[in-house]
């Protein structure tokens, strides 16, 4: 009886050990599968004909902010969302819709003289021509926005209204 009990104990211990190994393999496969399902980022802004290039192949700086990141940031305004783009500084002393936007490497002075807001590649408004109107006032962030793409350098003067700083 004692040998039967010890054989059962050994068999149980072996099965538990193997079950843990199988679970670890399933966990590793799930992680690999999730990484494989994540789509590669394609840059559409600033590419000829909207053909798109891989983000890693772009010769200019690109920042992508998806809907989940927009929810995490919880911006009060369009300008507030631009704080997530490296090299962009927002000063919002004018309130929710009166921000000053500075892009690294370009002179400041108020409003947003080096920023273009575009929807699917088409600029929303030409360069700021009024002292109280900056580009982020024209467009509001809401739940319908799936992604924001910030393009710095490269083809900015060509794909925007001539502003070399930032195209979103």
Model description:
The chain has about 170 residues and is α+β, with helices and mostly antiparallel strands. The chain has one domain: TonB-dependent receptor, plug domain (Ferric Hydroxamate Uptake Protein, Chain A, domain 1). Helices cover about 30% and strands about 20% of the residues. The strands form four sheets. Strands 3-9-10-6 form a four-stranded mixed β-sheet. Strands 1-2 form a two-stranded antiparallel sheet. A two-stranded antiparallel ribbon has the order 4-5. The longest helix has about 35 residues, at about 1-35. The model has no long low-confidence stretch (mean pLDDT about 75).
Quick structural gist:
The chain has 4 helices and 10 strands.
Any idea of the CATH class?
A: Mainly Beta
The SSE order reads HEEEHHEEEEEEHE
Q: How far is it from the N-terminal to the C-terminal residue, by CA?
A: 77 Å
Mean pLDDT: 73
- Give the spatial strand order of the biggest sheet: 3-9-10-6
Please name the defining characteristics of this protein.
168 residues, four-stranded mixed β-sheet, globular
What's the topology here?
Layout: H1 2-37, E1 42-43, E2 53-54, E3 61-66, H2 67-73, H3 78-81, E4 88-91, E5 100-103, E6 115-116, E7 118-119, E8 122-123, E9 147-152, H4 156-159, E10 166-167
Parallel strand pairs: 6-10
Antiparallel strand pairs: 1-2, 3-9, 4-5, 7-8, 9-10
